[in-house]
Amino acid sequence: MATPEELKKLIDYETRKEGQTCEEVMAEVDKVIDHSVMTQHKRFHNQLLNPYTPEGLGGEILSNLTNASMYTYEVAPAYSMMENIMMKRFREYVGWENGVGDGILNPGGSISNFYALNLAKHHRWPETKTQGLWACGKVAIFMNRAAHYSIKKAAFFMGFGTDSIYECDFDENYGICQDSLRENIKKAKADGRTPFLLVATIGTTVFGSFDNMEMCGAVAKEEDMWLHMDGCLGANMLVSEKWRHLVKGSHLADSVAWNPHKALGVPLPCCMFITKHEGLLADAHSAKAAYLFQPDKLNTHMDSGDKSIQCGRKNDILKIWMNFKIQGEDGIAERVDRMQGIANYLRDQIVHRGETDGSFKLVSPGFMFNTTFWVIPPSARGPNAPAYMSKEWREKVHNAAIVAKEKMQEYGTCMIGFQSVPIVGDESPPNFFRFSHSKPTVKNSDMDYILDIITDYVAHL
């Protein structure tokens, strides 16, 4: 992988007053592609980016060709109808009876979580739309401390402030701890805050773990809180008959964030926000712009622009629809099942190698597609190795991840992210890898290859 300084020399990034020929520009484009990360490659497991299908890419290209914005039915009639029907199907997957509710596609899972905070506020205090935050006073938001950082971003963007966030401990399965949740609710009340939102994470970013939706639903009901399910990753399990039990209680949520681009073969970005409260999106966000949303036009009930926080909004529905039409719901489910099967194989191999020669160790139990593990260099294993979790052992393991990652980038063999975030029983663990499996087409041998090269990269340590 080239450095920023090298790229600046390799590629002519500067624009000029006069245009260049297509041949000249395409020569530079070739260099751009040569020095870009191929996230479709079977050895890219660095982020939660699912390889898209040919039909998904076809939908992306066709939607760009028509170049329609999704704010009114008159400029996107077929797409508006498609989005309504597909959103209903996804709400049925969540478990809301007859697919009741509403939904909107948006540019990212973080934006979906922004929607959740604003909708929860508007549902509890509709007067905040005109009066601002004076109408709700100091509030409290609760989440697993393994939850996505976009909840914090939404809190300070909307004026609640990060002090409104109460991060709850996770249990041994990295789901939100019920005792910690209840203690934090008591603390928030003692702080003079009103509990109004509980965020349950289904598929946490690092561990891939699941909050207990049934428990969260019961607590939210007791405290009269909005329950938002951040299922950007984990909601994809709902399409699989085999794995949807992991999201038991999803129907208790008031709203759901769901990213089909993370598992269903849809090109990035493809993110949806859905809620069981019909009409609330429009009520919370409508500004009734007269130049766009004339009430005496035909089919105004199909206009989606006024329920969105955007005005112009890209058509992302065609690529989802084409995927489902060509693969069928069974084909989509099979895709998820294959990914889960490969992830399970990888975890089994890490355990097996760890038991055989001590070269790997799982950090957390296996959840969904994510696998977290330490690579343990030769000097940190065997009879003469430093004691497990001693300062010397931690330093060796910490450094091994850095070295392995550097060699991945230097040689371009694969890409896997590492980090050091709090884990059960350790607030500052040594670096560990987070393998984000997202390739349903890979084989068990591909997992063996990746473990082999990581072993080779740290063999001298």
Q: What distinguishing features does this structure have?
A:
40% helix; alpha/beta; seven-stranded mixed beta sheet; Aspartate Aminotransferase, domain 1; Aspartate Aminotransferase, domain 2; 2 domains; 461 residues
Q: How would you describe this structure to a colleague?
A:
This protein has 461 residues and is an alpha/beta fold. It folds into 2 domains: 69-314, 3-Layer(aba) Sandwich (Aspartate Aminotransferase, domain 2), CATH 3.40.640.10; 329-457, Aspartate Aminotransferase, domain 1. Helix content is 40%, strand content 13%. The protein has 13 helices and 12 strands. The strands form 2 sheets. It has a 7-stranded mixed beta sheet, with helices on both faces. Strands 1-11-12-10-9 form a 5-stranded mixed beta sheet, covered by helices on one side. Strand 9 (360-362) and strand 10 (370-375) form a beta hairpin. Helix 4 (77-94) packs parallel to helix 11 and helix 5 (109-124) packs across helix 7 (150-157). The longest helix is centred in the last third of the chain and has 41 residues, at 317-357. The radius of gyration is 24 Å and the shape is globular. The chain starts with a helix and ends with a helix. The mean pLDDT is 91.
